[in-house]
Amino acid sequence: MARFSVCCQRRVTKKQLLLTFMMGVVLYNEWLTYAATTLSWPHLTTPSEESVRLLLVADPQILSLISDSEPIFPFSLITVWDADRYVSRGFQMALWKTKPDIVVYLGDLLNDGSIFNDTDFYSTLQHFKNLLTVPDYVKHTIAVPGDNDIGGEGEDLVTPHKVKRFYSSLNQSMTLQYKFVDFIQLRAMDDYEFPDNTLAPVKGRIRILLSHMPLLTRTKKRIRLEIIRQKASFIFSGHDHDSFHFTSTKQAAHAHSFEVLPKEQQVWQYESLGPLLHEISVPTCSYRMGKLTAGYGAAIIEKSGRITYTVLWLPSRFTQLWIYLGALGFIIVIMLLPGILCLLRCFLCRPVQFCVLRSNMIVQGLRKRYKWLLRKG
Prior knowledge:
Blueprint: H1 2-11, H2 14-40, E1 51-57, H3 75-98, E2 102-105, H4 118-131, E3 140-143, H5 147-150, H6 160-169, E4 175-178, E5 181-185, E6 206-210, H7 221-229, E7 234-237, E8 244-249, E9 257-260, E10 267-271, E11 276-281, E12 295-302, E13 306-313, H8 317-349, H9 352-369, H10 371-376
Parallel strand pairs: 1-2, 2-3, 5-6, 6-7, 7-11
Antiparallel strand pairs: 1-12, 4-5, 8-9, 8-11, 10-13, 12-13
Helix pairs in contact: 2-8, 8-9
């Protein structure tokens, strides 16, 4: 029995226990939470020829090491890598769940795209494409420019060059017709005319306006007149980083009611061919926007005009990072605890002179043993 006990002590050391504990924390944060999240996502109706499935991606704001907005090197490597990985992983999970016909990017694809020169813009945009790889079964992708892509907020003005650079590099036009749906882009960040975003309305077709900034809350008369002229059936937008729903009449094109779409309710249904005009603001898919919750929008448009919408919420990365920090603090305390207890016992039970000598010896021993930790500190 004694021999078995000795063997167990040799087999399981404190370092091995701590390593197992840390591996368990990583497994929980990087696999179990994501598996549980995908299982909780609602199941939308089975796709058919009479429906169009959308995956809505708002404000990924892909970071770049070129930007001055990140911490100094080498911490910027960690922050950019972690944010990119979170967006890319969530995107692939959302693709797997929705199997969309069309992927719609609702602006702010890049965090600093508007202030980049052409070389930096194209290289960061290529990084964006590599992170959010679209599979072959997706029929179309639609990219709407945001203020971080072409300007339009504060002193960062929209210019024709930025607009042309965005659309040409992504091979985009401002309109797309697919099955019974017309997709029309409308920019609210500038006062340029939209000569190439006009599609003649056809009875029975559903007309979806796409914008980075919410449209029904705009005070510009030009925006309201454009919404009315386009005979919009429904609107999807981003920019606010939260999940909102605005309602207006189609004649007014200005919001008269507003609600936050709570995380607790999973699926909403709207009629797009009725007298009311609905706008959905899709939340950000990146935790770097400072929001505790992030996710991807998913919608099914039926030929009857019904639109079913949900948010595929992702695990909170902030919670995961706090768990990592707490686990690291716990490991440090466990490693330093024997020496701390020895010092306390020395001061409580021994003469003062001996304790001073003994404490110096212990401190020197701790320095040698945890030299790497002191360096980091």
